[in-house]
Amino acid sequence: MKWIQVKNYTEMSQLAARIMTEKIAEKPNATLGLATGGTPEQMYRWLREYSAERQLSFRDVQTFNLDEYIGLGREHPNSYYQYMRTHLFAHIDLPEAHAHLPNGLAADVNAECLRYEALIEQAGGIDLQLLGVGKNGHIGFNEPGTPFTSRTHLVQLTESTRAANACYFSSLEAVPTHAITMGIATITKSKEILLLASGREKANVLAELMRGEVTEELPASVLLNHANATIIADEDALAFSIVAKRK
Ligand code: F6R
To answer: Which of the residues 9, 37, 60, 77 could staple to 198 if both were Cys, CB 3.0 to 4.6 A apart?
Structure first.
């Protein structure tokens, strides 16, 4: 795994957006794995800007989000679909049918998980997967202890994850208790992975990762064994780690 240290949130966002833009330039029918949350917000803004500058089209791109809350439909203001619409989909020419997220209203959740896995396969697998990381090392909604062999599945959210996401809802009670998430094996099958981390609140988890132990207790540590994974982290997130500075 490659570590890239950048100065701050803006540099992290710009570098990640450049890598994503380059992927689309190089492969106009790329399959992108997308994340939500606070970390990639500004990255999406730069991705919109850089792809427009280069007149790149998303017409043939397919996107697969990591996760969606159970119980929230696409039109719910707190659904991850709405997050993606706000930050990316409404601003680019990606056909609606190419933007995939698990269906949080599926009557049969297991069938929905299988459908999602099959769709990713049909698209030829994910070329570039974007990730954030939870303070406890989760990737997607794969909390500590999730098997590295897991595929898209139903998860019960931990109280700490619900509390971390409560700022986007009217109250903690309004945060859904379950979600569908890509599994760890789904994520690591991606040809290339980009994990972004910014801010002092991620410093402990990155220091843990830096220790180099690959364990299911730290889901993000699975990336240490991936052939093409990069972490882009800013100085605050690396405050407790030692990394060679990017030239
Ligand atoms: C988002 C996701 C989560 C977040 C993680 C970090 O789709 O699956 O794993 O990436 O919780 O969230 P932020 O970026 O809000 O700190």
So the answer is: 9
